[in-house]
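re the bet — no i am not wrong, look at it urself. input seq straight from the record:
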Amino acid sequence: MENLDYSVLLYYCYAEIKDPEAYREEHHLFCVENNIRGRIIISSEGLNGTVSGLKEDCDKYMEYVKSDPRFAKTEFKVDHFDKHAFAKIHVRVKPEIVHSSLRHLDPNIRTGKHLEPAEFKALKDQEDVVILDVRSNYEHELGHFKNALRLDIDNFRDFPEKVKELEHLKNKKVLTYCTGGIKCEKASAYLLEQGFEDVYQLHGGIIKYGMEADGADFEGKCYVFDNRVAVDVNKVNPKVISKCHCCGTPSDRMVNCANPECNIHVPICEACGWKYEGACSDECKEHPEKRPYDGTGYYQKNTNGYNPYKGLHRKSEKEISKPTVND
């Protein structure tokens, strides 16, 4: 049986942080000292993260976050894996915890009604309901709820513009959903601001729905923002809905094109992966800067000079390094 000694945590919390830079240093130091890896965004409006680590280290991390009164309400979605889901730790300060172009909205003041997975499942097929996917194209093309309305957007910041096309749905119950719930906080709040009256959101997103409602009627896989790339959600009636970008056969194997100037993220079946050496086309296969293909189609992102030890003045890198087991 596979040893799943690692946890993968997905979470967010909208809460005021008066000095994001100072909190970034404190938070970052805790992660480095406890061998937590992942991507964490800190802003004046809260924090948002996906991290991985040994189960005991992740337990300490969750306790650390929730021990701060500002983040006591944080809900963690916990999955299990056989290794770290990230290569490094990045803790960054940004203007928003999810880039939305909706900075004026505070979900703590007004947002859509939260539906637990069982409530969402019971409501989603009713006649006066519209299920609205607020994620980007590459995410919902890999997997989405049956009969969901999917917007043609490349980034969540394009969501407000697309809402103009939904005016005819103002008399419906609108059920929004995303990966872990964070985008729905702002998306549902914006819908209310635009005059939609009956707006809901799937609390905990697709990930929690898979854990608590067995993922019923979620078709395909769920795109995640770590080295796993895509995870199974549906234990009841699963199906593959995405097709290989190269040959059109059913495939949910997500690959970054080996040509770094293209870098498109699309499903490519294993046969085409080897045929095109990780590229998405003959043209990209012949590109002089094509990266070597190892069968995964995953390439570590450029860190843009990010130093994981920057600002950690209290201890040296040697002092805060810990050996990793089973990595």
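see?? The domain at 6-97 is CATH 3.30.70.100 (Alpha-Beta Plaits). told u. also DSSP finds ten helices and 16 strands in the chain. so pay up
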